[in-house]
Hints:
Elements (H helix, E strand, L loop, with lengths): L12 H9 L7 H10 L6 H8 L7 E5 L7 H5 L4 E6 L2 H13 L5 E5 L7 H4 L2 E7 L8 H11 E10 L5 H10 L9 H10 L5 E4 L7 E2 L2 H5 L11 H14 L1 E3 L4 E3 L7 E7 L1
Parallel strand pairs: 1-2, 1-4, 2-3, 4-5
Antiparallel strand pairs: 5-10, 6-10, 7-9, 8-9
Amino acid sequence: MRQCIENPDEVDWRGFWAERLEGKITKDWDAAAPGFYKRTRNDDYQDALFDKLILNEKDTVLDVGCGEGTITIPIARQVEKVIGIDSSPKMLEYLKKRARENNIENIETVLKPIEEITYEEIGDVDVVVCSRSLNGILPVEKVLSELNKIANKYVFITVFGPENKKIEKDFDRELGVKTEDFPDYNYLFNILFNMGIYANVERFDLKSYREYDSVEEAMDNGKFRVDLYCDEEKELLKEYLEKILTYDCETGKYYNVKDKADWVMIWWKN
């Protein structure tokens, strides 16, 4: 029987968020770091992100879940200082390496899980950026509250949109399993609303799709949880990708036009 809710503001979106994350296995980001560092980002996500960010050359920025620096480095070129926080020592090691390679000297790193971020430790910054880093965070309301305290000007968050992981979901159907995806933007928007934060929502209009040098690279690019598959499932995945990927003779790349990300930005001004 459907529960009757008299006041929509009383819907427990935080509880729904936690339910969607139940049983999710945390990715080994240290193991993933070398691949992230080597991989060339061939999508237009970064352009879409920087079209929306509001940054000033005198700003200090907290980059939450900074990883190996894909976003941190270009932010650092535009502002006075960036604090990159991540739970993976390997990711931060590659971030520092990337900063040295680009002669960037205004990045400070903090080794800490996102769940443990506090205003008391970080203090005031002008802008907080959470690029593709909050979808798997369980105490999300607590984290959002701390980030809101930290940011003097703006908070920018990108999370999954409604059409994320199309080909992964198709593969799950072939396996006969239900896709247990992470909670997407509508959960986060409503959690913020219940916190009294009235955020803006903008969906990125991404055009580019992913390209791979080989089917094996397509298997191992992080979209599929190959580390959790048995040998039979890995073989089925390879067959599936061989079936759906197109080879471009001119570029020497494999691709599928449905294989692209769907991201939504949620942001607000303090």
